[in-house]
Amino acid sequence: MKILNFGSCNIDYVYNIEHIVKPGETETTDKLEVFPGGKGLNQSVAIARAGTKVYHAGCIGSDAEILLDTFKTSGVDTSYIKQVDAKNGHAIIQVSSQGENSIFLHPGSNHMITNDFTDEVLGGFEKDDIILLQNEINNIDYIVDKVWKKGMIIALNPSPFNEKLKNLDFNKITYLILNEIEGCEITGESSAEQILLNLKNSYPQLKVVLTLGEKGCVYMDKNSQYYQPIFKTEVVDTTAAGDTFTGYFISEISKGTQYKDAIKIASCASAVTVSGKGAAPSIPTEEEVRKAFNYLREEQ
Q1: Cβ–Cβ < 8 Å for 203, 158
Q2: What's the whole-model pTM score?
């Protein structure tokens, strides 16, 4: 079983400020830092650091050496990355003194995924291989249709949510990993309980992981449901917390780990991430997560 992550590669410009800027407000930044990022890159790095081989596919710009270096040092296979003559996708990230963040994206090279490139990439994968997708690249609907016909296992993190995701047939998705905001957009429901119930009734074969921020997360399929509280830690930067969770969860299910254990390991990894700065640089290794189980405690 191979894991393919067809996803974005961003350069993150992180501005440290006292509080998130409000509409009409001007705020002076204390510090600017530049990190490799993007939901796709972060999740591939998390899978690799969790000890699982992952292939990353996507388009990067001519200004993206920092991204290639990150993939290389993290152990991500870059055979399916294409360099294009364009500005790389990038993110502008505000991080407040309380550790909250606000992000907006410029897609750049991430929106240069063609049908031909997609077909070329998918030629290297077979039935029952796992493909992980987010929503920071274009051509998602084409990719989903192609891999579903191949019989691949599709894991979708529908972030950031927008109208194009409403064109997807969620019956083709095996794993849906999302937060409450995305759950509300997909189902029209406002509470976690109603989001899960709606998804279960609408897509009975779907396996759902609903993350609840500081309240933890829930795994649900047609036969079972598990709740996992967060692990207590000092919050420094939440930027890559969700991506770390997703990457570690995918890594664990590829190993055959039971779902209850998979979300526990992913939650611990996410807690380690929020105690560090930056996106990809804060994602822990498998060894660091194992050690964290010795000193982090679950919220009661």
Answers
A1: no
A2: 0.91
